[in-house]
Amino acid sequence: MGIPSELRDLFANRKTSPLIQSPMDDEKILRSRQCTQEGVRAGAKAAAVACVASSVPTLIAVRTIPWAKANLNYTAQALIISAASIAAYFITADKTILECARRNTHYKPA
């Protein structure tokens, strides 16, 4: 159940295209990778902050508010905290990548 040898060779030699790649394309690829890495870094930082910011009130509420004590089990608490972290990660990463792409776009007047 492996990849057939023809497909494997095609994927392995994908870098060698029949068309000559310009240096501008390499620069664009490098900039896009840098934007992606920048977005991942910013998203991870935002997710860490959101994790702390959502876990403290959630855990305090579960210990002090009677309704939360009765209705929020460990799974619900984990879902609340992880939903906030995931949302913060994706929103921040998306905004950072788009901002970096705008910054790297060169507008040429017509």
TrEMBL record:
Name of a matching Pfam family: ENOD93
Organism domain of life: Eukaryota
Protein name: Early nodulin-like protein
